[in-house]
């Protein structure tokens, strides 16, 4: 079904994305039924884990996505890296990268705490990765009834429940002072607050899921998202799909030094400072962030 043709060209990728979009909508339906407390779904059964809360909605949706993708693609050529099935190893020991050529990276419910607290800012995230880089991505914002999708080199589109799809692009704002940051309500330590206080872009919006944050950027309601890990870090499944829908919409998503993100490396933690932006002053934003963090640590 899928073949690499060289120079970032793939045969059959559109058909693969069509399946992922269908699965994304189905997953959104499951989450919304739990979100609304529909009686046939039962209780959320919230469990507090080391990596954050897990609910019945996470587990049921994860199984739905896996069942449907594996029915279409099998397990010989395609690997599956999901938040709910990944086994964290003991400290200092990394799991080996998955060996298949094509890797599905899945977050069935990004923003579980927002889901529990009923902010509406949760998402389904599905990415297909080839040689450590995403080539197809779906991010669904169930409560907005929008599905964002992208192919490597093909742009980003937003699709409604009615099947209407339109291209989306980031804002054209180019001055740091005019940029709006999208930040979490939680996951903010003193170091991150210091950074926010000293960056020239002062406008801030609070949004939950990473997928919803990046959707806010490609919808031009914000321009910048920064992740600054301390004791914990975002995982591959938090970032892979949002990265592609941002970059194909004209934005950038890199490490602080401007290098590209990589996935399925064994360590699923994306340590360090990650910066996502509309791309127009990305290098300047990275440089200023680096200077501020160096001042704090000196």
Q: Which structural class should the secondary elements be placed in?
A: alpha+beta
Mean pLDDT: 91
Largest beta sheet: strand ordering = 5-6-7-8-9-10-11
Strand content: 25-35%
Q: Count up the helices.
A: 7
| Distance between the first and last residues' Cα | 54 Å
Determine the fraction of residues in helical runs and give it as a percent range: 25-40%
Q: Cα-atom Rg, whole angstroms?
A: 18 Å
For the largest beta-sheet, the strand count, sense and barrel status come to: 7 strands, mixed
Enzyme class: hydrolase
Protein name: inositol-phosphate phosphatase
Pfam families: Inositol_P
Organism: Floridaenema evergladense BLCC-F167
Describe the structure.
The chain has helices at residues 13-35, 56-73, 112-116, 190-198, 210-218, 236-247, 282-297; strands spanning 3-6, 9-11, 47-49, 52-54, 78-82, 102-110, 123-130, 133-141, 146-151, 156-160, 165-167, 180-183, 203-206, 224-228, 252-255, 273-277. By secondary structure, the chain is an alpha+beta fold. It has a seven-stranded mixed sheet, with helices on both faces. It is globular and about 50 Å long.
Compose a concise summary of this entry.
The protein has helices at 13-35, 56-73, 112-116, 190-198, 210-218, 236-247, 282-297, and strands at residues 3-6, 9-11, 47-49, 52-54, 78-82, 102-110, 123-130, 133-141, 146-151, 156-160, 165-167, 180-183, 203-206, 224-228, 252-255, 273-277.
């Amino acid at each position: 079904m899928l073949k690499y043709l060289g120079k970032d060209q793939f045969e059959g990728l559109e058909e693969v994305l069509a399946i992922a979009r269908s699965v994304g909508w189905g997953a959104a339906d499951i989450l919304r039924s739990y979100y609304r407390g529909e009686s046939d779904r039962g209780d959320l059964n919230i469990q507090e884990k080391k990596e954050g809360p897990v609910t019945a909605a996470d587990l049921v949706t994860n199984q739905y996505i896996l069942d449907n993708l594996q029915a279409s693609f099998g397990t010989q050529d395609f690997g599956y890296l999901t938040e709910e099935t990944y086994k964290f190893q003991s400290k200092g020991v990394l799991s080996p990268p998955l060996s298949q050529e094509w890797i599905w990276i899945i977050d069935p419910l990004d923003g579980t705490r927002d889901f529990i607290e009923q902010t509406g800012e949760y998402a389904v995230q599905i990415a297909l990765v080839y040689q450590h880089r995403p080539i197809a991505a779906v991010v669904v914002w169930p409560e907005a009834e929008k599905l964002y999708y992208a192919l490597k080199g093909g742009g980003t589109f937003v699709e409604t429940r009615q099947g209407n799809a339109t291209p989306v692009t980031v804002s054209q704002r180019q001055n740091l002072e005019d940029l709006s940051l999208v930040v979490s309500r939680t996951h903010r330590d003193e170091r991150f607050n210091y950074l926010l206080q000293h960056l020239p872009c002062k406008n801030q919006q609070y949004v939950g899921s990473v997928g919803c944050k990046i959707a806010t950027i490609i919808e031009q309601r914000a321009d910048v998202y920064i992740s600054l890990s301390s004791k914990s870090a975002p995982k591959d499944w938090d970032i892979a799909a949002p990265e592609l829908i941002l970059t194909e919409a004209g934005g950038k998503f890199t490490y602080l030094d401007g290098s590209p993100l990589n996935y399925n490396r064994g360590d699923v933690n994306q340590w360090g400072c990650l910066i996502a932006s509309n791309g127009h002053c990305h290098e300047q934003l990275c440089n200023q962030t680096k200077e501020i963090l160096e001042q704090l640590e000196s």
